[in-house]
Amino acid sequence: NILPYYAYRSFSHRKKWNFQAKTENMIQNETAKALGQLLFYHKLTCFDKDAVRLYVVHRQLKDGFSVSIQNGTAYFPIYSSDYVILLEDRKGNRYASGMEYQLEKLMRPGRFIKKCMEQAPECESFFIYQLDKKPFHEELDEKELELLRRFLRMDSVSEEYRTYLFPEIIRLHQVNQVNLDIREYLKRINPSMLNQSARKYMVELLVDR
Cys bridge to 43: 31, 97, 104, 113, which one at CB 3.0-4.6 A? Predict the structure, then answer.
């Protein structure tokens, strides 16, 4: 797989900044799809010779993924600060700690995100990154709200995270005075996962309607 090699070699040192400057305004759908992985690549260097594979789980996604560790090194995407890495040894044992490693970010994706979200709204990675970086109290425009609604409809989004976001999505629509069918969204979440304050908030909204 040449993608990890390309991520590491092509975007190191000053070359990566030249690439960013030249391509920022040239991003279209297919390019944005590729960047949906490439922009978030990290390099992990493990100092334990018994480590042969790693598993990455993002809170926001239903499914995690695994990557083999070759010569003590692995390349893979991390979309947010809310993730877990498990390392697996030759016997199949997995560890959340105890195996020393170094994690290096290979790209700085910030300046590309908004353009990529518009060009490839089917890529959940951009939404996860943006939601991790942009506080909920910030106002969103109508286009951003529509992209956010689309993200919540993605099958890859975990039920727990969809439920966590739900009260905030409702509030953002109210702040921005945008109509939203709350009952339709209730079909996409698990109400039992809402905390007490969120449940109270949802009941009040439904009673007012």
Answer: 104
- Residue 1 has what pLDDT? 45
Buried b (16+ CB within 10 A) or exposed e, 91-126: eeeeeeeebebeeeebbebeebbebbbebbbebbbb
Q: How do residues 33-68 score in pLDDT, each as one tens digit?
A: 888 889 999 999 999 999 999 999 999 999 999 999
β-strand partners of 89: 51
CA distances for 113 relative to 132, 163, 179, 202, angstroms: 12, 24, 26, 31
pLDDT of residue 181: 65
> pLDDT tens digits for 135-182?
655 666 777 777 777 888 889 999 888 888 877 777 776 766 666 666
Average pLDDT over residues 88-111: 93
